[in-house]
Amino acid sequence: MTLTMGKALNAALRDAMREDESVVMFGEDVGALGGVFRVTDGLAAEFGEDRCFDTPLAEAGIVGLAVGMAMNGFRPVVEMQFDAFAYPAFEQIASHVAKMRNRTRGAVGLPMVIRVPYAGGIGGVEHHSDSSEAYYAHTPGLKVVTPATVADAYSLLREAVADPDPVVFMEAKKLYWAKDEVSLPVTTEPFGTAVVRRPGSDATLVAYGPAVPVALEAAAAAEADGRSLEVVDLRTLVPFDDATVASSVRKTGRCVVVAEATGFASVSAEIAARVQERCFHSLWAPVLRVTGWDVPYPPPVLEKYHLPGVDRVLDTVDRLQFDDAPDPRFLTGAAG
Amino acid sequence: MTTQAEHHMPTAAAPAEAGLLPSPEPVRFLDDDGAPAPGDAHGRYERPPSALLKRAYDAMVLGRRFDAQATALTKQGRLAVYPSSRGQEACEIGAVLALRETDWLFPTYRDTMALAARGIDPVEALTLLRGSWHCGYDPVATRTAPQCTPLATHAPHAVGVAYAARRRGEDAVALVLIGDGGTSEGDFHEALNFAAVFHAPVVFLVQNNGFAISVPLSRQTAAPSLAHKGVGYGVRSERVDGNDPLAVLAVLTDAVEWARAGGGPVLVEAHTYRVEPHTNADDDARYRDHDEVEAWKRRDPLARLEAHLRARGELTDDDVAAAREAAEAYAADVRARLGEEPTGDPADLFAHVFAEPTPQLREQATWLAEELSHDAAEGAR
């Protein structure tokens, strides 16, 4: 059947709640309203207000409550509503969610999921479009997952709920309405496995979340120009699949990382470093990145200039020294 | 149909906050010398049973000796840091004795004495402060959360644990310890609000010991009392003389049983004093008068309890000697077991990040193991 990612996420939550009574869902507006993106639509009606409930408007309280419930037998799935709204909960996430297993030398694990609708492209006003994945990926003890396909949305969320460790589940807002043919329930590759979404031989595009459709579109456009681009979808940022990424880059010899978040000190920087460490002798050109600019997320009228689009990806691919010419941006220092 | 505003309008006969307001003065049973004080204003608290007070006495003697031992070990470099709770014995022990074994305690870094009173192995209790790991005991087995270093962030966890217990049909209560400084943190307020909205069986015990490191209460809040902070959230609130073991035990036992019976959360402010510096690294002469410290030392909770029990003939010289002997033996055991340098297994670095290490963690563990075997080979040469 044809399904949107939003519906697939909703189905994953419903199926997880049907299978395991300890799964509870809470956050702001997740009950009667079904979440501002309707991801929890109908869950309060089907499972009752004990299983899916609205909380006071307080993100640290929501995550803190989830920590306590996870310590005492439940599997909470909490929604942060919008990326930047999660920042008040960051102390809870960094100091407690990520560290409880470690602090207690393995005695207390926290099986919980923090759902973060993230990234832009939907015309949101400020504080509604941040790509905050680097904060979580940089924090040891958190798994960080971000699906790019409808099937992955279902399968990875099911795996997140079942995981014995806390998972920050990052849902690209602009993909909520992306459709695909999927018959549920579906099981895709597990956490820590990147997938080659499109095979190619001239260069590898590494992408995740909202950047995956952009990379695929760029690869399709490049094909028309006779250039064969391989697209790797990371799916999980932590754990990271070095093997699949390195094997693709060793095959193609060139790599561009595509991500929506600002580039400086980002997940894309981490990927570029890891590829360079593992594939140096296979590389014909430096690993390049296409990211959002290093600016606060812009207002809606300007976001089209900020978000990495197909043209910027293709321009960057052209700089991969296919003609032995180094990328001029990095010779002049203009790109910092 | 009433409007929202009308709905919230209290009637003159029963103002909404009437049942929530703390007593006009802190509840106390004993005067500063341990003689009976006039009863509390509400007359709602009964003198705790003598057997419980005797248990409290023994635990307070032990707690104080443990605290002194830990302070001494810090001076010898055996502990990385130790925040003393000397003078707060009534609160530390009262919190634990008000709980059943199945109840949960959420302590801060200053509440090591409470961990000892809970029966946690003192070496495991000191693991954090010794620097050999973060939390040395099993929080689920002991029903005691890891000692929390960030302020008040453990309060929402207590709400979660208590709410989960109620959802599972258990009658467990969670008691969370917070300092006066912690009441300024957002998590304290979110926890009170959540506890009230979810009617969770949580008792918040604020040990108002006068200072958040160097900052006095007057710089922490302009509220009439810290107990009043509960009222705005719909949380029943009370204040108690935190250096009066009878009052602390009476009020906390009442609060815990109120929460257990489904009454909802309770906030208790205990007026006490930190007679020692914040930690061994602190110079308290910079921010408070010697006279003030001495005045509070004269309201010593242990001396007051001892005077009270002796006056009633419920504590003999032999009882006192036995309590001190047990405390000495306890301290000697702590001393002996903490005498050696702590060691840590480097493999532990990677073992408890996730249930299963990621490939990256396995690589790093291998790398470190190789580094160590290389070092060992160098050392053997």
From TrEMBL, chain A:
One of its GO terms (molecular function) is magnesium ion binding. Keywords: Oxidoreductase, Pyruvate, Thiamine pyrophosphate. Pfam families: Transket_pyr (PF02779), Transketolase_C (PF02780). It comes from the Bacteria. It is an enzyme of class 1 (oxidoreductase). Its cofactor is thiamine diphosphate. Its EC number is 1.2.4.1. Residues 3-178 form the Transketolase-like pyrimidine-binding domain. SMART domains: Transket_pyr. The keyword Oxidoreductase applies. This is Pyruvate dehydrogenase E1 component beta subunit. It comes from Jiangella mangrovi.
Automatic annotation (TrEMBL), chain B:
Transmembrane segments: none annotated. It comes from the Bacteria. Residues 1-47 are annotated as: Disordered. GO terms for molecular function: magnesium ion binding; pyruvate dehydrogenase (acetyl-transferring) activity. Its EC number is 1.2.4.1. One of its GO terms (biological process) is branched-chain amino acid catabolic process. It is an enzyme of class 1 (oxidoreductase). Residues 58-333 form the Dehydrogenase E1 component domain. Signal peptide: none annotated. Its cofactor is thiamine diphosphate. Keywords: Oxidoreductase, Pyruvate, Thiamine pyrophosphate. NCBIfam families: PDH_E1_alph_x. PANTHER family: 2-OXOISOVALERATE DEHYDROGENASE SUBUNIT ALPHA, MITOCHONDRIAL. This is Pyruvate dehydrogenase E1 component alpha subunit.
